[in-house]
Amino acid sequence: MMSFTDHLTELRMRLVRSAMALALGFFVCWSFRIELFSFLAEPISRALADNGVYQFHAIHITESILVYLKTSFAAAVILTSPWTFYQGWSFVSPGLLSKERGFLIPVTVFTVIFFLIGAAFAYQVILPFITDWLTKLTTEGGQAVVMITLQNAFSTALIFLVMFGLVFQLPLVIFFLSLFGLVSARGLVGFFRYFVVLSFVASAMLTPPDPISQVLMALPLNVLYAFGILVAWGVERSRAAEGEGPSAGATLTRLMGASLLLLGLATFLIVGFVRSLPQRDLIELAPAETAWVIHANPSALAGQDDLGRAASGALAMSPWLTTLKDAGVAISEVREAALVANDEGASAVMVRQIGLGDRGLSLDEKSELALARLDPDTIALGEVSMVQKIAAIAAGTESPAAMSDEDDRLVATLRTAGPIWAWLPNPAGAPGLLGSQLAMEAASVGAAMTNTEPTRIVLRVHGKDVERAVTLESQLDQIRAQASAKGTIDVELERALRAVINEISRDANPDRRTRLRAIEKRLAKSSDATGSSVPAISSLEDAASAWTLHREGTRTTLGADLASPALGPLLKRIGTALP
Fold first, then answer.
1. Per mean pLDDT, which range of 120-129, 147-156, 226-235, 404-413 is the poorest?
2. What are the extents of the domains in the chain?
């Protein structure tokens, strides 16, 4: 027996322990604040990227730290919840009967599981669909520009996850009401038509003010209500079979266990069905021998910004674009395209546009390229061998390029970085592009070109371990220093000197022209001496105006701001290097 004061003392001890664990969990989560926010906002950022929006904005100076604090706290609550529950259970369990203990444990377990199922449904299905639809609605007329803040992304994601987690508790609520005789299966059936109205009213109150969000919450509510009718029917059958006094814990475990399996299977089928729709990532269709992939959002590049104008000018005569235009594809309406190539130079481009695969497109009989339909929205165009492999992957008869967890994280980062990005599945196989040392030390390499002002290109290199990442950082730092030295006054001076030499050479006699050419060769040799040992970066030296370098763990990021006049020539050089 314990006195009231003893109970308060123990309660204080349990609360202090829970608070200490929460504080410790918060500091742990704060160390991963960026990764946690990226994970939480990933469905939103990915849907925005499909519509040409690649950045979150911070309206207030303190917005970022407040969002990171909230994200870290929410993650800490989840991380420490088992310990918190244990402390609460240790406080109340001594005062419970064995039957009550057997009842509360499955209640808690099923509450958590149903909440996670609802949150997963919102994360995988609802958030991407809602973000994509609302973004299209906002930009449809061209009068508005979408600018999503960090706070907006955080609150939207969290609200949807929590609301759908709570909505999926409905079968559990109906179970309790039925267990205590407050509702019956027959009564629930009769109330169903009224519940339909109530579900839409509740959805309008809990979701953002748009009809699609309301419908997407109301429909699961009605499905869960129908599922709850089956639960109530099962409770009545169990009570009739076991008499008026069945074990509540046993009944709950048996019925909710079966219900959980059915609901889990239904959720799995829904999510699987949505993922099986023609929205499979084009990167997942790259063949196993792929050397590099360049992914682009042509609709985002069709704008009037510097990058869009430079890309249009540089790729105007591209044979890929010419062939696609001849086949009736409106490039400015394409939201996703990927160019893949292997080590032997064989290449193909995959293009996705609504209804594109069902148009029955065909190529000229004289064309040496092949065209294949991958799904109702996607086609592949390119050399016969590559198109056949891509089609086989789409049909499920051949395996795509293997992607490690590090590659998954890299690609997820790149796809939301800008309208053009590239990924090298096998850096060791590209020494001619990366340089021998960088190619051998890197586990994965990617690059993205942003549509910010100024345009920025970012090279992301993941080392095989921390030691090699430090080596890569040192190497990239030397490259950055060399590129910075060459990319400022020296470049302009070199251009001016070459222009003077060419001008004087026109009217010079042969002897003087020979001396001028010798000077030009020495100038070129001096310029090459300061060039980068990484060919991919050497092409940026003339275009970059500023360089940055940052390493976090095994990931090193090298960034360069690109001057607007240099974008066109840079993209032309890239275009001439492509198949």
1. 226-235
2. 4-276, 285-401, 403-579
